[in-house]
Design goal:
Number of domains: 1
Helix content: over 70%
Number of strands: 0
Structural class: mainly alpha
Order of helices and strands: HHH
Distance between the termini: 44 Å
Protein name: Phasin
InterPro entries: Phasin, Phasin_subfam-1
Largest sheet: none
Pfam families: Phasin_2 (PF09361)
Oligomer: single chain
Strand content: under 5%
Length: about 140
């Protein structure tokens, strides 16, 4: 079967197929418009989630680069400390600071992801609510 795009599942007109069923009282155009808005909402939510993921990945790369630069400085500080006791004390301070910074960085990346996921979920939640209102309205119109 020859198709214009090589995929037979994408080479059809859904409005013609649904319109051919001629269901009494069903507004096919409204149904298709509702489904189109659903797809747009899912697309927008996916875009937001993807952008959030990209922002988190960029931030993690910055954190990694910064951490590697700081680590070399930490080694120099420990080596430069005088006695073994001073070296151990300095190393303990640096490990504590690095641990606290790692926790803060993890929290920051987590908040970035949570923000984008929340925004994406809000888009979907709003559209589900609208879709249910549209369904309620369509059912009310069928009764008339």
């Amino acid at each position: 079967m020859a198709t214009s795009n090589g995929n037979p599942f994408l080479d059809f007109d859904i409005t013609k197929i649904i319109g051919d069923f001629k269901m009494p009282g069903v507004d096919v155009e409204a149904l298709i418009a509702s489904q189109r808005r659903n797809i747009e909402a899912v697309t927008a939510a996916n875009q937001l989630a993807f952008e959030g993921l990209q922002a988190a990945a960029r931030r993690q790369a910055e954190i990694l680069r910064s951490s590697l630069e700081e680590a070399s400085g930490y080694v120099n500080q420990v080596v430069a400390a005088g006695t073994p006791e001073e070296k151990a004390a300095r190393q303990t301070e640096l490990v504590k600071a690095a641990f606290e910074k790692a926790i803060a960085n993890a929290r920051e990346v987590s908040e970035l992801l949570a923000k984008s996921n929340t925004e994406a979920a809000e888009i979907l939640s709003k559209r589900v609510s609208e879709s249910l209102d549209e369904l309620k309205s369509a059912i009310a119109n069928v009764r008339k």
